[in-house]
Design goal:
The complex is a heterodimer of chains A (115) and B (112).
Chain A (H helix, E strand, L loop, with lengths): L3 E4 L2 E4 L5 E7 L5 E7 L5 E9 L2 E4 L6 E3 L9 E3 L8 E8 L10 E2 L3 E5 L1
Chain B lengths: L2 E4 L4 E4 L4 E3 L1 E4 L6 E6 L5 E7 L5 E4 L2 E4 L9 E3 L8 E8 L6 E3 L3 E6 L1
Classes of the chains: A mainly beta (115), B mainly beta (112).
């Protein structure tokens, strides 16, 4: 079991460029999430998905898009990179049946710098 | 809305010292509460959790008790090690979402 994998680990973009951050999980989890972590701050939820074909906005969705065509993959797209998107991006997944309290599993993160 | 507030860091301790990291929360009802740990260069991993009031979560010598009276979930360890140096996050579920809202994190530095 690889768990949650993310690629790339590091990336530098110029303002206005676009890129896709990849995330894959092999635990058959139904829920997947994208968070960003700014220096000295907690994590902010960008988007999440409750299953293939279903996505919803989190706290800070502006400037990002997502899709969930399979259970395993949940890519995050940046269309027009801006310096404010410089951050570390974490993908996570979890398995939910009912109630709360289900553990989230995190990937190692992608460190993105926009210059 | 639901939120967590953590004590600011960094917290610097000598090895074998006692650790407390404060966490208080604002929430509707009695949600599950979590502590996650982030070691340098890694993603977050679950350290412990408590799913109902008065529960005590424990793992790797760390403990936290869910106290509804004081809306707190403070993290404690009796004797820290250098290997405990990391950033610790308190978290609870967003209302209406199966995602988590995190505190700002507390950096712990343990010196030999």
């Amino acid at each position: 079991n690889a768990g949650v994998t993310q690629t790339p680990k590091f990336r530098i973009l110029k303002i206005g460029q676009s890129m896709t951050l990849q995330c894959t999980q092999d635990m058959n989890h139904n829920y997947m999430y994208w968070y960003r972590q700014d220096p000295g701050m907690g994590l902010k939820l960008i988007y999440y998905s409750v299953g293939a074909g279903i996505t919803d906005k989190g706290e800070v969705p502006n400037g990002y898009n997502v899709s969930r065509s399979t259970t395993e993959d949940f890519p995050l797209r940046l269309e027009l990179a801006a310096p404010s998107q410089t951050s570390v991006y974490f993908c996570a997944s979890s398995y939910h049946t009912s109630g709360s309290g289900n553990e989230q599993f995190f990937g190692p993160g992608t460190r993105l710098t926009v210059l | 809305g639901d939120s967590v507030t953590q004590m600011e860091g960094p917290v610097t301790l000598s090895e074998e010292a006692f650790l407390t990291i404060n966490c208080t929360y604002t929430a509707t009802g009695y949600p599950s509460l979590f502590w996650y740990v982030q070691y340098p260069g890694e993603g977050l991993q679950l350290l412990l959790k408590a799913t109902k009031a008065d529960d005590k979560g424990s793992n790797k010598g760390f403990e936290a008790t869910y106290r509804k009276e004081t809306t707190s979930f403070h993290l404690e360890k009796g004797s820290v090690q250098v290997s405990d140096s990391a950033v610790y996050f308190c978290a609870l579920p967003y209302t209406g979402r199966r995602a988590l809202t995190f505190g700002s994190g507390t950096r712990l530095q343990v010196q030999p």
